[in-house]
């Protein structure tokens, strides 16, 4: 059974990966290169193309102007491939998590996958972004890579805890009325969205880009990652229905017992 | 086992019963290999080649 789940998850990852690869090819690659080039055109001399920071007097700032080890074509192709593999990777993790956690997720079968996808999106993307928002090319970072990675991992854990708390709150209160459950489930997430950005410093700045451009870039990152999760859950549901039409209506529990 | 007894721990038990130790070891080894590749991707050449993806996906390690 776990193998069936993994198979569906990887297949769903392939579907989402194709879509995300197309997005990388037609939207993200040209946009990233455009942003990169505009900043180089009116770039100042102190923004040397090396890793050794720049002459701003802020030694701890890490500057982002150092990607000339490979050609633009290579970058574009590898970025497309990475996007596809990223979705496949998420699909595999999603399937394994769904296999283990499915009994603990609320809702009917077609909804459980979306609940888990939402929890995944909140854990993997949204929570880390509250402190480390998506950075457009040319961003200046307050912290070093090592500390950012540590923050990132810690925030993924926080996101998972908040998602679990939200689902637990829903399950406890939804017996009275589903709407109360949804409201209770929204509380932990809303609290996190409100508290975390307000107690953490701004660690990413874009001194050379307009704020509207940065907002648009971030909105694209948020929407494209959310789309990956929706595609994963939707494709997984479709594959599950296709594999087992009889149990699609009232759950896969029957399959589970007959296969025992 | 009845449908109402489907719990997280029962899922783990089913997986244990279904998978042979060799399959389990294969999975773990593969996961370790993936983790190793992720570390290797920090190398400047691979890292730079993924530049657009890392920015577009909002992945922080850049």
Automatic annotation (TrEMBL), chain A:
<keyword id="KW-0812">Transmembrane</keyword>
<feature type="transmembrane region" description="Helical">
    <location>
        <begin position="113"/>
        <end position="131"/>
    </location>
</feature>
<dbReference type="InterPro" id="IPR012666">
    <property type="entry name" value="CbtA_put"/>
</dbReference>
<feature type="transmembrane region" description="Helical">
    <location>
        <begin position="179"/>
        <end position="199"/>
    </location>
</feature>
<protein>
    <submittedName>
        <fullName>Cobalamin cluster protein</fullName>
    </submittedName>
</protein>
<feature type="region of interest" description="Disordered">
    <location>
        <begin position="40"/>
        <end position="66"/>
    </location>
</feature>
<dbReference type="Pfam" id="PF09490">
    <property type="entry name" value="CbtA"/>
</dbReference>
<feature type="transmembrane region" description="Helical">
    <location>
        <begin position="219"/>
        <end position="239"/>
    </location>
</feature>
<feature type="transmembrane region" description="Helical">
    <location>
        <begin position="9"/>
        <end position="28"/>
    </location>
</feature>
<feature type="transmembrane region" description="Helical">
    <location>
        <begin position="151"/>
        <end position="170"/>
    </location>
</feature>
<feature type="transmembrane region" description="Helical">
    <location>
        <begin position="83"/>
        <end position="101"/>
    </location>
</feature>
<keyword id="KW-1133">Transmembrane helix</keyword>
<keyword id="KW-0472">Membrane</keyword>
From TrEMBL, chain B:
<protein>
    <submittedName>
        <fullName>CbtB-domain containing protein</fullName>
    </submittedName>
</protein>
<dbReference type="Pfam" id="PF09489">
    <property type="entry name" value="CbtB"/>
</dbReference>
<keyword id="KW-0472">Membrane</keyword>
<dbReference type="InterPro" id="IPR012667">
    <property type="entry name" value="CbtB_put"/>
</dbReference>
<keyword id="KW-1133">Transmembrane helix</keyword>
<keyword id="KW-0812">Transmembrane</keyword>
<feature type="transmembrane region" description="Helical">
    <location>
        <begin position="20"/>
        <end position="41"/>
    </location>
</feature>
